[in-house]
Structure to design on (197 residues):
């Protein structure tokens, strides 16, 4: 069997033992932990280094109550108990940052992304990619993530974002509690996924 460069314990932490977590301990998630997560995942690549992911951290009781009412009923208990909730969104005006983020091609802002529909499509794809990086970063920090898409998307946009930001998912973050994870579900085999032509 081929040996990967990543240590087996890290493979387990990031992938094999990773589960969507539904129950958490009361241990808080600190600002320093979130900063460390961001400082790791910000280096993962996106097209044209556009980096369109934006994160809203839900910490206050007032903001949590506003969010809980917008979640599907089955998700409310999970988020009510999570030490930290993150709303992940795509910034459809990411191109404003391109002169800084892409200094060798600053004109990309106007040459490639002048049209809003083009930006929205690219922001959705690349911010979703960054959302996956963010979840891996949470796991790399030794925390557990419970990503969810069962919520009122227009409601979350109106309550926590604006017309230039598209919500992608809500992620509960913390240390896993008792009975926090379901058993591993089956996965497709290599030959069921990969075709060589």
């Amino acid at each position: 069997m081929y040996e990967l460069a990543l240590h087996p314990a890290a493979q387990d932490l990031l992938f094999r033992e990773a589960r969507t977590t539904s129950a958490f301990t009361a241990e808080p998630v600190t600002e320093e932990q979130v900063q460390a997560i961001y400082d790791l995942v910000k280096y993962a690549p996106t097209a044209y280094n556009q980096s369109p992911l934006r994160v809203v951290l839900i910490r206050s009781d007032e903001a949590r109550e506003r969010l809980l009412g917008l979640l599907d009923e089955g998700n409310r208990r999970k988020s009510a108990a999570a030490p930290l909730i993150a709303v992940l969104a795509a910034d459809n005006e990411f191109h404003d940052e391109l002169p800084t983020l892409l200094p060798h091609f600053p004109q990309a802002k106007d040459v490639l992304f002048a049209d809003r529909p083009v930006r929205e499509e690219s922001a959705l794809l690349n911010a979703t990619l960054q959302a996956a990086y963010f979840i891996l970063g949470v796991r790399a920090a030794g925390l557990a993530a419970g990503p969810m898409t069962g919520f009122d998307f227009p409601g979350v946009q109106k309550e926590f974002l604006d017309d230039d930001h598209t919500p992608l998912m809500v992620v509960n973050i913390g240390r896993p509690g008792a009975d926090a994870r379901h058993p591993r579900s089956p996965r497709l085999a290599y030959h069921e996924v990969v075709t060589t032509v």
